[in-house]
Amino acid sequence: MKHKDNCEQLFEYLRSILYDDKVNALQIDDLEPAFEKLGKGMQYLEQAVREMKEYSAAISVGNLSVEAPPRENFLCKNLKNIHANLNHLSWQAKQVAKGDYSQSVSYLGEFSEAFNTMTKQLKEREQYLKQEAEREKTHANMVESYNQLLIQLIERSKEDILVLSKDRQETLYCSGKSLSNSKHREIYEICRERLAEKLAEVEAEENACECEWEWEEQVSDHRYYYVATGFMEWQGEKAYAHIIRDITEEKEREEKLEEKAYLDALTGIGNRNLLVGKMKEFLEKSEKFVFCYCDLDHLKYINDTYGHEEGDWYLNHFVDIVQEQIRKKDLFARIGGDEFCIAIEECDKAYLRERMQMIQEAFRTRVERPYLKDFSFGIIDSFEFPVKASVHELI
């Protein structure tokens, strides 16, 4: 075969590698010895291009579980970076879906700005909805109160209704429930006592017999009641009606929601909301305390290399070690992906630094992993704080 034929065959092979779905095979034995090495190199290129095409095709349709080509394939280096970034971005999107609006992207150009704007708007929207819900709740309570006190709903109300005479505090009406029932008897007796106390307080005031108020009470079996009490005429006698509603389940739901609002879902310790609230209390009390900020190293590398489950273990491992060295009453919160804060009252700065160094050593060495485990920290004493410093400024 002539040189020209060899060149044409190799050129056709290269064209087929780049453009054909099914590459025409190259017969090395048909080439002259001088062209055999080049032919073998082009066969290596064919394999690399095929791997790159298959890899990019999988990523282009969102298959992030696809296995990356081997390290020797130099054509896929940038694709692997994109793959890792997409994996991390998917995890961040899931975190945002869970309500973690601290997630931010800084490595994807214009998309980073769009993502960060989205999380900011979601956070603002959530705050707005919370405010709207609070306003609705206040309005609903007001409407409910006036309806209970001004409209006769005795026969169709699901609440317990207890009517007591003003002068004697005797029972004039009970909404069909037995007074001997221990579940109700205690709250009924408390209503009687509260009415006597209230009337004694306002006895000298003008129109004292026509007062109305709302209150909550917890009884001995740990049940909670909301009570609206108001003056009324009952069959020609001055009386007070107590509209009693069992709000135990509502209280339990509120407590669970409040707990979620102030706890980090992954680690179970406090979150940024808790930190800001508690630190404001510390600053307002102006008492001695020490504040420590921690930043874990290598979290993104661990997530990208070993997966996010390993990254979660890394975070929880750090939390476990810190909790061994601080008291339950000390403030410990996760304020970002790999950022944590500790605040301890009546503590010496040098003592906390020594503690943090012990935590750092335990974190580095206690459990063997195929990567480095470490974190940075900084400590400031309350006496060093600027006047009227905010939590953000302290961090």
UniProtKB/TrEMBL annotation:
CDD domains: GGDEF, HAMP. Keywords: Coiled coil. Pfam families: GGDEF. SUPFAM superfamilies: Nucleotide cyclase (SSF55073). NCBIfam families: GGDEF. InterPro entries: Biofilm_reg_signaling, GGDEF_dom, HAMP_dom, Nucleotide_cyclase, Rev_trsase/Diguanyl_cyclase. Residues 80-127 form the HAMP domain. Residues 287-395 form the GGDEF domain. Residues 185-212 form a coiled coil. This is Diguanylate cyclase.
